[in-house]
Amino acid sequence: MAVSGFEFHCPTKIICGQHALGKLPAELASRNLAHPLVMTDAGLVKLGIAAKLTDVLDATGIAYELFDQVPPDSSMDVVNEVAHLYQQRGCDGFVAIGGGSVIDTAKGAAASLSCAGVDFATLQGSEILTHDLPPFIAVPTTAGTGSEVTLVAVVADTKKHAKLSFTSYKLVPHAAILDPAFTASLPPKLTATTGMDALTHAVEAYTSIQKNPVSDAFAVKAIELIAANLPRACEQGDDAEARTNLALASLMAGAAFSNAMVGVVHAIGHSLGGLCHVPHGQAMMMLLPHCVKWNLDHGVHAGRYGELLAHLDPARAAQLADASADERDRAACEVLFALNERFHEKHGVPLTLRELGIEHDKLEAVAKQARYDGAALYNAVEVTVEDALEILEAVY
Predict the structure, then answer these.
(1) Ranges of H-type helices in the chain
(2) What b/e readout covers 208-218, taking b as 16+ CB neighbours within 10 angstroms?
(3) For residue 40, what are the β-bridge partners?
(4) Most CB atoms closer than 10 Å: which of 34, 327, 329, 389?
(5) pLDDT in tens, 364-373
(6) What are the residue ranges in the chain where pLDDT is below 50?
(7) Cα separations (Å) of 27 from 5, 142, 180?
(8) DSSP 3-state assignment of 199?
(9) CA 88 to mean position of chain CA atoms
(10) DSSP 352-379
(11) What is the pLDDT of residue 33?
(12) CA distance 69 to 66
């Protein structure tokens, strides 16, 4: 295989497995953290999940501050509020326990602090940051976003009804703790949508115009782990092996797309989140097979989706061992549609925008915003407003 020049960056220390949380005090000590700001959301507090972490800190006598008001969609106002609280309480690092919104809020606040507390909105764009973040440990409670290893933060501008992307190698957390205890209680619907979010990261990373051999390796392994473990985790939530494998898959997919970037699925998904408040994982799940079909219909990624078939569905791949590249591509797309149908039938996960109550007249605005989303730049073919609208109509 001919390899052109590329870069791959994943400096995060990974602590993975059952009881991994027990290593948090030692990790804090190794980074000289004596007074971290623990960030989470009210839902995780109510469910007692955040207490699993704070109990560990309490048992070892580690002083900390707690911010538990991160909203479902991270916002500029909250990012700046957290940065102010951090300075006011004399904190010396971050521990973020939650999903992508919590971790991205921590990224935003940490980035603001690294730049002398400036408004995070002024840092929008790519590689604006020049200083390192304060020590930052991420503890994901979903297996979907991969935010614990990515260089991206997506934060909502509630005034403009848009999701803004911030990209910098400086935004990558310093350590990630993956413990299946944090995802065991996720209900099937959320398990399915977050898992399909991770699958989308891996598929788009593998087919991005910025892909490379290292990101491919991470993406392929992530796809293999998700295909083998997501149905198990949905049906048996306390399956520690399946939960651990999904957490690792999410991280690997995050590392893959953090270097290779994503594409049309995320471009449209970001707009659905900003304008229609569709949860990110739900948007990714609905859009993925339709966007894969759209790419194939436009002659994009010929053969690449078929290369993933053996990892998505080994039995189907074996049946099509002598098939053409186009047949294998189409089969991979069919597997994605079938996965969605399975989760819809077994767990009631919505598959259309209509089911979510989205008004049809909003689609044009979503399509226009998607056209200029940064993720669209990495799709192998240009996505016009008409193209985005065609995909949205298919998902409606």
Answers:
(1) 24-30, 42-46, 49-59, 76-88, 100-114, 188-207, 213-235, 240-260, 264-276, 280-297, 304-312, 314-319, 325-347, 363-371, 385-395
(2) bebbbebbbeb
(3) none
(4) 329
(5) 999 999 999 9
(6) none
(7) 35, 21, 18
(8) helix
(9) 31
(10) STTTTT--GGGHHHHHHHHHT-GGGGGS
(11) 95
(12) 9
